[in-house]
Specification:
Number of strands of chain B: 13
Order of helices and strands of chain B: EEEHEHEHHHEHEHEEHEHEEHEH
Largest sheet of chain A: none
Order of helices and strands of chain A: HHHHHHHHHHHHHH
Helix content of chain A: over 70%
Number of domains of chain B: 2
Number of helices of chain A: 14
Oligomer: heterodimer
Number of domains of chain A: 1
Helix content of chain B: 25-40%
Number of helices of chain B: 11
CATH superfamily of the largest domain in chain B: P-loop containing nucleotide triphosphate hydrolases
Structural class of chain B: alpha/beta
Shape of chain B: elongated
Radius of gyration of chain A: 19 Å
Shape of chain A: globular
Structural class of chain A: mainly alpha
Strand order of the largest sheet of chain B: 5-6-7-3-8-9
Distance between the termini of chain B: 39 Å
Strand content of chain A: under 5%
Strand content of chain B: 25-35%
Largest interface: A-B, 23 and 24 residues
Radius of gyration of chain B: 22 Å
Distance between the termini of chain A: 50 Å
Chain lengths: 306, 306
């Protein structure tokens, strides 16, 4: 545990010296918040909370970019092999990166909520405890997924390609960029298999409907379950050296990281509650201003229903 | 009688179809400076990295300070320090932070000020790693390897790519390790490094130890001979020159002719006459006492730095 804390402080120090942290962790999400609010929630109120949920989710999901790239850079530059000489294992390296990422996320999340409330006139803060717990758990989930990507990818180029594919699917299908109910029905069902969907819908419920933690069981279970599984997986397939090849058997572990979402997606598809709740939130939020958060592809005023 | 602190028996290692090690065996006594001398690709780094616990051997056994390096236990890692051939640290870590970080990871209270002044890094203590010169980075790498006072120190090509001045500084550091009775295993392809620093040398080529002894004993193999290296206008068969007066051995290496002679003046006179008689011409001639390079040439017919 002492080593985890030592490495966490080391990573925090490095991050604070990196301008990219300030730019991508704080400034860009705030720019998105202002931009989305200006377009979709210019009169403030619950629409700002709806926009905030998307921006918070985007910030949280960004964890997998940062962590996967950092791990690959450390591996390619031979930094990991220097640490390998010290008496510590892959778990210590991984946990320290997840914790430091979590700590570094706090200022950005806090700034986005503060700006939404005080500058963009979001009328209520929602259930802040739920928002913070979901954001924290989401950060851990996406960080571990990023670490899985870094362990699978053999180079920075491969990491970028995998990240782009995941990022775009999370962004476009989970309700971050386009409200979930605006998607075609079959795509809404596909979205139920994505971790990002549970983060976005959970944040929407916590911010707009003040849903307390004890009513966010599915979201917490999906994010928590996949964090645990993804962490186990990335520990199994962790590579210190660029030339180390991932054993073929280990690739099966990667598939195992997707199991919680497959199970939850199948369950949610059968129940149908999440999609109808997403429609209800969208409808209630934009009822008086139907055009305020319309996506280019499909206006939220006429959500698709099964 | 000294006790062996490193024992290596019949180590084998394959990378695909390439046999990197073909049964390497040696023992190193406590307090000894032992060199692995050989050309690039001979198997030096593979051997040292197996002993550092960075690679697994396909066959054979290795023991360092009584530990099996393959198991990579914390006690093993605390008993050894290593300077890897290819490694790095993050650019934005400061020199004293790096020392402090690794001291904490090893659970020791390092005398950072002492280490910094010992390695000539006092003035650079607040400098970022990315701003250090190659020599300073290498001195820091050695300081990091010694931060936890290990019994055994592995130095993989510690002076490769460094200018002569920095190389001499590294030699002084290794001499200091000798005075401290540390056991040092170093790999090198510099003859002078092995001759100057090592108590014993194993010459390694194509994954085999082809000779092992003190530098003096190894050079005794060429004792009584003087090396005469000539370049000729037209190539001559080595066998032709072996018949000349005083010639004990003759080989063609890199297009130059290397003769080992027991009577150099007579050999030179005979050589000039022979060349005149055959319409050939002497373009250059160098005379030197035999070195480890000659031992290597005798054993392999090649130069070390091919």
């Amino acid at each position: 545990m002492r080593h985890v804390w030592t490495l966490t402080l080391f990573r925090l120090r490095l991050a604070m010296r990196n301008r990219a942290f300030l730019v991508f962790g704080i400034i860009i999400p705030l720019i998105f918040l202002f931009l989305f609010s200006a377009v979709f929630a210019s009169k403030g109120g619950p629409a700002v909370a709806y926009v905030l949920a998307s921006v918070l989710a985007m910030s949280v999901m960004g964890s997998f970019w940062g962590l996967s790239q950092q791990l690959v850079i450390f591996r390619e530059q031979g930094i990991l092999r220097r640490f390998r000489l010290a008496p510590l294992g892959p778990g210590t390296m991984l946990v320290s990166s997840i914790i430091s990422n979590l700590i570094l996320m706090v200022p950005g999340i806090a700034a986005e909520i503060a700006v939404a409330h005080w500058m963009l006139h979001m009328d209520a803060l929602g259930n802040l405890l739920s928002v913070f717990v979901l954001s924290a758990l989401g950060a851990v989930t996406f960080a571990t997924l990023g670490l899985v990507v870094a362990s699978v990818a053999n180079s920075m180029m491969e990491t970028q390609v995998i990240n782009q594919l995941l990022w775009l699917s999370f962004l476009l299908l989970s309700g971050v960029a386009i409200p979930l109910p605006s998607l075609p029905i079959w795509l809404q069902k596909v979205a139920l298999y994505l971790p990002a969907t549970y983060l976005v819908t959970g944040l929407e419920r916590a911010l707009i409907e003040f849903v307390p933690l004890n009513h966010l069981g599915a979201e917490l279970a999906s994010l928590g379950g996949s964090s645990v599984l993804a962490f186990f997986v990335c520990q199994q397939i962790f590579r210190w050296e660029p030339e180390e090849k991932m054993p073929r058997q280990a690739k099966l572990w990667v598939a195992a990281a997707l199991v919680p979402f497959l199970l939850l997606g199948a369950w949610e598809t059968k129940q149908g509650g999440r999609l109808s709740e997403a429609r209800s939130i969208l409808h209630s939020t934009f009822a008086e201003r139907p055009a305020q958060r319309s996506a280019p592809a499909a206006p939220p005023a006429q959500p698709n229903q099964p | 009688m000294s006790k062996a602190i490193i024992e290596v028996r019949d180590l084998t290692k394959k990378y695909g179809d390439v046999e990197a090690l073909r049964g390497v065996s040696f023992q190193i006594d406590e307090g000894e400076i032992f060199g692995l001398l050989g050309p690039n690709g001979a198997g030096k780094t593979t051997t040292i990295e197996i002993l550092e616990g960075m690679r697994t051997a396909d066959g054979g056994t290795a023991s360092v300070s009584g530990f099996d390096p393959q198991k990579g236990s914390a006690q093993f890692k605390r008993s050894v320090g290593a300077v890897l051939q290819s490694t790095s640290l993050p650019d934005k870590i400061r020199v004293d932070e790096a020392l402090s970080l690794f001291a904490q990871l090893y659970g020791t209270r390092a005398d950072r000020t002492g280490l910094l002044s010992r390695f000539g890094l006092q003035e650079k203590r607040h400098a970022f790693y990315g701003k250090l010169s190659g020599g300073q980075k290498q001195r820091l790498a050695i300081a990091l390897a010694l931060v936890h006072e290990p019994r055994v120190v592995f130095l993989d090509e510690p002076t490769a790519g460094l200018d002569p001045q920095v190389r001499r500084e590294i030699y002084d550091i290794i001499e200091e390790l000798r005075r401290q009775k540390k056991t040092v295993l170093l790999t090198t392809h510099y003859i002078e490094e092995a001759e100057r620093l090592c108590d014993r040398v194993a010459i390694i080529d194509h994954g085999n130890v082809i000779a092992m002894d003190t530098p003096r004993e190894l050079k005794q193999r060429s004792a009584g001979t003087t090396r005469i290296e000539v370049s000729l206008a037209k190539p001559v068969e080595a066998a032709e020159l072996r018949a000349l007066e005083g010639v004990a051995d003759c080989r063609t290496v890199d297009g130059r002719t290397v003769l080992h002679s027991t009577r150099p003046p007579q050999t030179i006179v005979a050589l000039v006459k022979h060349l005149e008689a055959h319409g050939n011409e002497l373009q250059s001639l160098e005379i030197a006492a035999p070195s480890l390079e000659d031992v290597f040439i005798e054993l392999t017919g090649r130069r070390l730095r091919e």
